[in-house]
Amino acid sequence: MQFLISFTLNFLIFSSLLSSTYANFADEQRYNICTNAANYTNGSLYSRNINATLFSLTNASLTGFATTTIGLDPDTVFGLVQCRPDVAENDCRACINTASDEITQFCPNKKQAMIGYGNCSLRYSDFRFFSTATNDLIVYYRNTMNVNDSNLFDKQLVSLFQNLSVSAAANDTKFAVGAIGYSLFSDIYGMVQCSRDLPENGCLSCLQAIIGFIPQCCDKKQGARIFTMSCSLRFELYAFFQTSSPPISGMLSPPPPLPVSTDEPSSVPTSSSDGKFYYCILSS
Ligand SMILES: *[C@@H]1O[C@H](CO)[C@@H](O)[C@H](O)[C@H]1NC(C)=O
Ligand SMILES: *[C@@H]1O[C@H](CO)[C@@H](O)[C@H](O)[C@H]1NC(C)=O
Ligand SMILES: *[C@@H]1O[C@H](CO)[C@@H](O)[C@H](O)[C@H]1NC(C)=O
Ligand SMILES: *[C@@H]1O[C@H](CO)[C@@H](O)[C@H](O)[C@H]1NC(C)=O
Ligand SMILES: *[C@@H]1O[C@H](CO)[C@@H](O)[C@H](O)[C@H]1NC(C)=O
Ligand SMILES: *[C@@H]1O[C@H](CO)[C@@H](O)[C@H](O)[C@H]1NC(C)=O
Ligand SMILES: *[C@@H]1O[C@H](CO)[C@@H](O)[C@H](O)[C@H]1NC(C)=O
Ligand SMILES: *[C@@H]1O[C@H](CO)[C@@H](O)[C@H](O)[C@H]1NC(C)=O
């Protein structure tokens, strides 16, 4: 089952996402963030500048990160694409091609739009957003399954994300993954990423904001993904990233002492619960 909850704040109204859009797990690999702050009409100069922006960004995508500025004021379009740094070049390119095809479909007639997938994201806007975090809209998915020991889980999760956010912010890739012990059977795996144009403090404060949002959206949940236009995080009780592929930073700590459980001691959490996510978009 999917749930869509929309909260609106002043002039910010969010894309009317149909819950059926998110009816299966494959679709949940995609998120989009659109604002109603400014609209354009089809065929306008702004829409032609969007096309040119998409063409330029797709063309530039081989490096895994690119920005572009197209057109003259007041129809200037500022664009940015980024791939996860551990994604292969051809997968990056394929992802950005998809983003370029789909962004106007998911954010039709919006001057400020972003679409993202597991491997890449694409954003354009009518203002120069480069190097500044845009954090006012938050999108999240969360696993419906609860953890057994939420006190320990929260403690380990906070510790993991504090570590990862400091590492990511300090790194040019603005990306970090890692894991921390939770129980005998499972570690907590985490990933954080900022838009690569952000300075260290901008990345760090963006990540701190969404880490601080976890108790509001995803308390006691076994997994969640949280996105703003400028940064994102994910955690799960299973490895959802390739631990071997560089560049990866983070840690793997030994599990803390486990309270002895007599129930089904051999059962191991599986990743199948990942299919149950709520999708929400709201303002922070
Ligand atoms: C943009 O369009 C939406 C409807 O799609 C409307 O609600 C909103 O007020 C418009 N924004 C502006 C700034 O006109
Ligand atoms: C503009 O074109 C897009 C597709 O490119 C379409 O989804 C949208 O509905 C059109 N908007 C209007 C107002 O016709
Ligand atoms: C922009 O590109 C889309 C898809 O390629 C096309 O349908 C549309 O007509 C183009 N718009 C302009 C103004 O060139
Ligand atoms: C596409 O990329 C090539 C090689 O990087 C570059 O020379 C060319 O100017 C680019 N074209 C556009 C439209 O950005
Ligand atoms: C994302 O990139 C990874 C690593 O390059 C690749 O294995 C995976 O197939 C890509 N995912 C999609 C949906 O293309
Ligand atoms: C993150 O954890 C690793 C391994 O425990 C540690 O070496 C590193 O110093 C920590 N980084 C930060 C920023 O806390
Ligand atoms: C950034 O991350 C890469 C890949 O993990 C690593 O090789 C590099 O040392 C890191 N740089 C810094 C400044 O931490
Ligand atoms: C929760 O505890 C039960 C029973 O001890 C165990 O089977 C299950 O694997 C645990 N789940 C997690 C996510 O640790």
Written account of the structure:
- Belongs to the cysteine-rich repeat secretory protein family.
- InterPro entries: CRR_secretory_protein, GNK2, GNK2_sf.
- Its main location: secreted.
- The chain has 284 residues and is of the alpha+beta class.
- The chain folds into 2 domains: 129 residues, Gnk2 domain, C-X8-C-X2-C motif (Killer Toxin P4, Chain A, 2-Layer Sandwich); 137 residues, Gnk2 domain, C-X8-C-X2-C motif (Killer Toxin P4, Chain A).
- It is 26% helix and 24% strand.
- It has 4 helices and 12 strands.
- The strands form 2 sheets. Strands 1-12-7-10-11-9-8 form a 7-stranded mixed β-sheet, covered by helices on one side.
- α3 packs antiparallel against α4.
- The chain is elongated and about 60 Å long.
- The N terminus and C terminus are likely disordered.
At the fold tier of CATH, the topology name of the largest domain is: Killer Toxin P4, Chain A
N-to-C CA distance? 25 Å
CATH architecture of the largest domain: 2-Layer Sandwich
Can you give the helix content as a percent range? 25-40%
DSSP helical segment count:
4
Largest sheet: 7 strands, mixed
CATH superfamily of the largest domain: Gnk2 domain, C-X8-C-X2-C motif
Classified by CATH, the class of the largest domain is Alpha Beta
Give the count of structural domains.
2
Indicate the mean pLDDT: 79
Number of strands: 12
Rg, rounded, reads 19 Å
